[in-house]
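ARCHIVE RECORD
Type: protein–small molecule complex
Small molecule: guanosine-5'-triphosphate
Source of inputs: curated submission
Record status: active
Notes field left blank by submitter.
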Amino acid sequence: MTTLLYRYFPHLIPSETHQMLRMRRTLMATGSGLVLTVIVIVARMMGLVDMSITAFILLYSLIWLINLSFPLMISYDINLLFKDPSLTIPQLIWHTLTNTISIYLVPDLHSVFLMHYLLVVLFGAFRMKRRGFLIMGVVILSCYTGVMALLHLSGKHEHGLLSEFLGGIVFLFMLIGVSIIGTEISSLRWALKKRNSELNAVMKQVKEQAITDDLTGLYNRRHLMDILRRQQALAVRGDYEFSLCFVDLDHFKQINDQYGHKTGDEVLQTFADLARNSVREVDFVARLGGEEFVLVLVRTPLDGAVYVAERLRQAMEAARLEILEPSHRVTASIGVAQYKPKEAIEETMHRADIAVYSAKNRGRNQVVTEDNLSSLILSSLHNDADLYTD
Ligand SMILES: Nc1nc2c(ncn2[C@@H]2O[C@H](COP(=O)(O)OP(=O)(O)OP(=O)(O)O)[C@@H](O)[C@H]2O)c(=O)[nH]1
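STRUCTURE (tokenized, with ligand):
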């Protein structure tokens, strides 16, 4: 049925995975409703249904209006307005009701329809828990005994009461059995669903850990290289610029020596927070290692990057760190470089790195750009500066 719908009415099949699954189940139920209708129509053609043709057509038009309303609701996302978007209980009750109508119309085939009740209960395994199965059991039993009583009272069904009673007991046991199996399937589904969401959460955590630095929560060096390659690819496509700020905290060894490693860690975390808050959402902040950090400022030319770097330097200089002595200020030296079209990303990193060295040489706590490096510093550092490779 789903395949037919795909072929002739592709626009009615939802593309979202959950909705598609709901549609498939609903079409299964609609399919079993179709089988019921065909059986009743054949029975009427054989003279087993005592109902005028007009009333019969009217009744089945109404039944199919409601039958089709379930898949249509899913097609147009109306089911999402309900607490249970699978519409399990309404569908189960509706199919129980149509099955009961079928028994009333064709009492001679009531044992066939009795089996269909069991199919309806199994349909609940997709969604229901134990309580749902209990409710459905009660609803089905009430419908069945109700319709049988009605048939006997109106004289439409002439079977002996004892055989009917025994048949009812057998059906009750079958109903209990099917409900237990349904509950088991249902609890397996819930357990799987829970395990799946736990796995997803762990996967998310593992992915995050793979790209972040444990101490500061900033991106780590490996992820920084990925970010830079993506930025480079954007710049290569044209009309895109970005800049790097290399940051090195000044005299950090002294902080470790004077206050201990733990305090040193806290200073690194404080700086990480400051750096994170000094850039835009779209920018990136990474820790290269030790007391070295990198800001990747997207869509930012050199002068914009200098502005951000200077603002961060001033914020760090002004920050009062309660973990240190009141007069102790932690400062940062920052080197800024802009990516030049067609160059290797390592070359940009190299220039930013040289700018940091220059800032240190010029007395620390300052921002130096690649533009204001003297050629002397450039040539002396060019040979021994680290090339940043992944
Ligand atoms: N607390 C702490 N210290 C670290 C960490 N990683 C590196 N360090 C320390 O950072 C210090 C870096 O010292 P240096 O490279 O000599 O630089 P500096 O003292 O900041 O001097 P300048 O950079 O020249 O201003 C070393 O003492 C490292 O042990 C860390 O994760 N936590």
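CURATOR ANNOTATION: DSSP finds 13 helices and five strands in the chain.
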